[in-house]
Design goal:
The protein has 370 residues and is an alpha+beta fold. The protein has two domains: 165 residues, Rossmann fold, CATH 3.40.50; 117 residues, no CATH class. A six-stranded mixed β-sheet has the order 7-8-9-3-10-11, sandwiched between helices. A five-stranded antiparallel β-sheet has the order 2-1-4-5-6, covered by helices on one side. The longest helix has 18 residues. The structure holds adenosine-5'-triphosphate. Adenosine-5'-triphosphate binds next to helix 1. It holds the Pfam family TOBE_2. One of its GO terms (molecular function) is ABC-type ferric iron transporter activity.
Length: 370
C-alpha cells in the first residue's frame, strides 16, 4: 500500500510517531480508551503501567500487528493507519521491533540474523555494521552460534541487535530486557540506551518497571486501565504527580488522612499547605519516605514523648527506619523514612524530623471525589 501524505498530515511532520484518538476493543472489552501520544525524532518514550493496562496493545497497533479500529497512526507525518482506509503492514513501516518473545531465525547464525535487515548494503559493510552492534551488546563472541545454542537472555540481546541494525527511525520495544538477570539487565539497558541515542532512533519502549522507565526515558507516559494518566519527563512524574496513582506507582509512600482547615492540613510533622483545596474537604497527605529527614536527639530513653525509632533495617543502598511520630497536638503516626547509606539507630532512639515538602503531595481523598 502506498504511503501518501495528506494535507492534514503536515502538522505532525516534526514527530517520528503520532498516535491520535486510538481506541481498541477485544471482543466487547475496551482496552485502549482514546490515546494521544507523539514521539519526537530521537526521543525515547516509555509506556509505563501495571499489567493489563493496554501497553502492549498500543505498541502492537503502532507496529501494525493489530489493525487499527479507531483513531490514526502517523509515521514522520505520514498516516500509516486509519480505520477502513489505510493499513500499512508491519514490514513496510520501517520500524525496528523487539518483543518479549521475538523469535530469531533458527537456521541463521547470530551474525546472519543481525545482518538480515541490511541486504541493501555491500557484504563487507553489512558484516561490519552487524558485528559492531553485537559488540556493543556484548554478543560478538557468539557471532557464529545458532539461536538454539544461546540462553534466553542472549537471544533477547541478538533480537535487540537485529532490530537496531537497519538504524530505523523508530524502534518499538516491548519489555526488551525482561529475560535478563538483574546485573546483566543493568548493563544491557545502559548499552541499549547509548546505542539508541547514538543512532538517534525515536523509541517507544513498554515496561512495567518504573525504575527502568526513569533510566531509559526522555519522557514517560504512565497508563492505567486503557488511558494515559500523565505524560512528562521522569522528573515531572516523580516531582509533580497529577494524582495518587502516579505517586504510588513510583514507590512506597506514607499516607495520612486529614481535612483542610484554614487552607492547611494538620499532620504530626506540622501544617501542610493545601490552600487550593476547599475548606473542610477530606484529604490524603502522601509523604515519600525520603522526605523525612532525621536527626538523632539526645534524650533520656523512655522518659520522653518525642518521635522515636521503632526499628531500622538496612536495605543495601539505603536504610528504612520505622518511626513513631508524635505531633505537638498529640497526633501520632507510624511512618517510614528512607535514609541513604547505612543508618541504623537503636530502637527507642529519639529523633527530630524535618520534612522536605517538595516530596509531600496532598490530594482530595478518593472517597471524597465524586
Ligand atoms: N488478543 C487478545 N484477545 C483478547 N484480549 C486481549 C488480547 N490481547 C490482550 N488482551 C487483553 O487486553 C488487555 C490489555 O492487554 P495488554 O497486553 O495490552 O496489557 P499490558 O499493559 O501490555 O500488560 P502486560 O504488562 O501484562 O503485558 C488485557 O486485559 C488483556 O487480557
Amino acid at each position: 500500500m502506498a504511503i501518501i501524505a495528506s494535507p492534514s498530515d503536515k502538522a505532525v511532520q516534526t514527530t517520528a510517531l503520532s498516535l491520535s484518538g486510538v481506541r481498541h476493543t477485544f471482543d466487547t472489552r475496551l482496552v485502549v480508551k482514546g490515546i494521544d501520544l507523539d514521539i519526537a525524532p530521537g526521543e525515547v518514550v516509555c509506556l509505563l503501567g501495571p499489567s493489563g493496562c493496554g501497553k502492549t496493545t498500543l505498541l502492537r497497533i503502532a507496529a501494525g500487528l493489530e489493525v487499527l479500529q479507531e483513531g490514526s497512526v502517523s509515521l514522520e507525518g505520514r498516516t500509516i493507519a486509519a480505520p477502513g482506509q489505510r493499513h500499512v503492514p508491519p514490514e513496510k513501516r520501517s520500524v525496528g521491533l523487539a518483543f518479549q518473545d521475538s523469535a530469531l531465525f533458527p537456521h541463521l547464525n547470530v551474525l546472519e540474523n543481525v545482518s538480515f535487515g541490511l541486504k541493501h548494503l555491500p557484504a563487507r559493510a553489512r558484516h561490519e555494521q552487524a558485528l559492531a552492534l553485537l559488540e556493543q551488546l556484548g554478543m560478538a563472541d557468539y557471532a557464529q552460534n545458532y539461536p538454539h545454542q544461546l540462553s534466553g537472555g542472549q537471544q533477547q540481546r541478538v533480537a535487540l541487535a537485529r532490530a537496531l541494525a537497519p538504524r530505523p527511525q523508530l524502534m518499538l520495544l516491548d519489555e526488551p530486557f525482561s529475560s535478563l538477570d538483574a546485573r546483566l539487565r543493568d548493563r544491557i539497558r545502559d548499552d541499549t540506551l547509548h546505542v539508541l541515542k547514538k543512532l538517534g532512533s525515536a523509541t517507544l519502549l513498554v515496561t512495567h518497571d518504573p525504575e527502568e522507565a526513569m533510566f531509559m526515558a526522555d519522557r514517560i507516559a504512565l497508563m492505567r486501565d486503557g488511558n494515559i494518566v500523565q505524560t512528562g519527563t521522569p522528573r515531572e512524574l516523580y516531582c509533580e504527580p497529577v494524582d495518587p496513582f502516579v505517586v504510588t506507582f513510583f514507590g512506597e509512600v506514607n499516607i495520612l488522612k486529614g481535612s483542610i482547615h484554614k487552607g492547611c492540613v494538620q499532620t504530626p510533622m506540622g501544617k501542610i499547605d493545601a490552600s487550593w483545596l476547599p475548606e473542610g474537604s477530606g484529604v490524603e497527605v502522601m509523604i515519600r519516605p525520603e522526605a523525612l529527614k532525621l536527626a538523632v536527639r539526645d534524650l533520656p530513653a523512655k522518659a520522653h514523648n518525642h518521635s522515636h525509632v521503632i526499628m531500622a533495617k538496612l536495605l543495601g543502598r539505603s536504610s528504612l527506619i520505622h518511626l513513631c511520630v508524635h505531633g505537638e497536638d498529640g497526633q501520632e503516626a507510624h511512618l517510614h523514612a528512607r535514609v541513604p547509606g547505612v543508618f541504623l539507630p537503636a530502637e527507642g532512639q529519639p529523633v527530630d524530623i524535618d520534612l522536605d515538602r517538595s516530596q509531600v503531595f496532598v490530594f482530595k481523598s478518593a472517597d471524597a471525589i465524586t
